[in-house]
Amino acid sequence: MAYTKDMIDLERALECIKGEFGDTSDLIVTRFAAMGSECAFVWLDGLIDKEVFELNIAEPLRASRDTARGDEIQKILEQRTRPTTPIKTVAQEEAVCAVSDGDIALLVDGAPCVYVYSERKYTVRAVAEPPVSNVLRGPREGFVEDMKTNMTLIRRRLRTPKLRFEMKTVGRLTRTAVCVAYIDGVADGKVVAQVNERIDSIDIDGIVEAAYIARRLEEDNFSLFDQVGSTEKPDIAVAKMLEGRVAIVVDGSPIVLTVPFVMFEHLQSSEDYYVKSYRATLLRCVRVMALAIAVLLPAAYVALQEFQYQMFPLKFLVTIMNSVYGIPLTPTLEMLVVLTIFEILSEASVRMPRYIGMALSIVGALILGETAVSAGLLSMPTVLIISISTIGLYCVPDEANSASVLRLVFVAVAGVLGLLGVILACVALIAYLADLRNFGTSYLAPFAPALTQDWKDTVIKGNAMEQTTRPYSIPTANRRRIKR
Q1: What's the whole-model pTM score?
Q2: CA distance 460 to 446
Q3: Share of the chain above pLDDT 70, in %
């Protein structure tokens, strides 16, 4: 048989595919005769549903006595096989990519193209409550590492034909599937275009987690603060999309990214929208206070003890002086040492096995701390302040990373310049945050700039029925939310 350049030469095609995959043991090639030609299935073991493949594709095709050539081959395949998804056709050069993605490539000698069946099946984690975003009231479903499952969780909550999923492939070696999700007519078209442009510009060998995409979506890559939102819960992702945001789903990651992002989102919780507004307001005030205590309390204590000790109440000053008497370290150095110890204990408790980590936390926090105080190496007020600061830090877990660094910086500044330095550092921090922008949205919105229309969903949580418009902080194509 004389082959043209557009026809599949089975031997040459198989040799090419095997050459690309090398000596890998999970490449499966099964040859058989069908439709009057030599054929071969090629797939990667562990990525396909073998039962569906054998019953609906392989056995019917082997049992077929039809003869076909050229374009007739696809018609026979559609008649004889029963795939769960439509048969795709690709050029011979694209067969390797299809197999790498977990599909089944059918090569027919003399056919004009390669036929691809998509019967992917691999072990995925069951949908469960995420470990970090726990709630007392509200949905308990969390995203998993399978992108299709995550897209389904979003689709179940947005039962509208206006929901759009735009698929992309990022990473030269990993070929990671990335999905840009938004609501047509709600999300701003310029934001969607900008998200697509930044993702398309990524030229990297591999994407293994959503954080890789998040770093490329940020305008300031050296900022200490997150400029891209992230969530483990479908209800939060959908709520943000309803406000006009764009969601980015990355295959292999249980985290869904959302943009544009404002800082105050970290102080919100999905549970705030499922309880009475006065309760949500109280919880948000507690979170703001806890975050301020976590960052400023150690620095304020160092500044007062080093420079402005006369500002302490007399009885409190006597108590502190008795506690710090004989401590060999300066207040600043003592605070930095205790902060370092707590960071080490926190990291060790996370990295070690769960039950050993719990025991280590108890030993470190109680026994080690008590021993250091009894030995006169550390003072009790310093250990107490760092304990309170660390507890406040995790009242807002999404800000724990940046806040833990900030309190170290503030303590160092307080040790050099006192309260004046702490005040100047706060002013500089606020000025920096006010200048930070991403996707046309100010990081401190709706306070800088002052968008009074959005203040009803900030520290004070207004009634949901009063929020007739979408946030003015977020660009949107449709501002109206509730019609009256």
Answers
A1: 0.84
A2: 13
A3: 93
